[in-house]
Design a protein that fits this description.
It is a single chain. This protein is an alpha+beta fold. It contains four helices and four strands; from the N terminus they run βαβαααββ. It has a four-stranded mixed beta sheet with strand order 2-1-3-4, with helices on both faces. Strand 3 and strand 4 form a beta hairpin. 25% of the residues are buried.
Length: 113
C-alpha cells in the first residue's frame, strides 16, 4: 500500500494527498508531525529515497538555522535531529513498496505508483 508522510499545513503535501485520492490507489496517510518515525523507520525511508540524510532536511527552517546550520554532523546525528524536530523533514514523502520520492514537484509521484 502507498504511504504518504503528510503535513496538512503544507500546500504541496495537500496537493499530493488530493492527487492520490484522485488516482484511485489505496494509500495510508502518516501524519509524521504527530507520529514521528523512529530512528530505524526514518533510516529506511532515507534508503528508499536514495538520499543522504542531509538531503531530507528543510534547511530554511528557523530551527535548522539556529541550531544545526553550521555544525558538522554525521548521518546518524542528522537523523536524530530530524526525529527531534520533525518539522525539518522535507515533505511530502510518498512510498510505494521499495520505491519512494519527495513529491516536489508533484509529478514525481507518478514515477512510483
Amino acid at each position: 500500500m502507498i504511504q504518504i508522510y503528510h503535513n496538512s499545513r503544507c500546500t504541496k503535501s495537500r496537493e499530493c494527498l488530493a492527487f492520490l485520492e484522485e488516482s484511485g490507489q489505496k494509500y495510508e496517510v502518516i501524519k509524521y508531525l504527530e507520529k514521528v518515525p523512529t530512528f530505524e523507520e526514518l533510516k529506511l525511508i532515507i534508503q528508499k529515497l536514495k538520499l543522504k540524510p542531509i538531503e531530507l532536511v528543510r534547511k530554511k527552517e528557523k530551527i535548522w538555522i539556529e541550531n544545526f546550520k553550521d555544525k558538522t554532523m554525521s548521518d546518524d546525528e542528522v537523523i536524530r535531529a530530524l526525529i527531534s524536530n520533525p518539522i525539518l523533514i522535507e515533505r511530502p514523502i510518498v512510498i510505494n513498496g521499495e520505491k519512494a520520492v519527495i513529491a516536489r514537484p508533484l509529478e514525481k509521484v507518478v514515477t512510483i505508483i
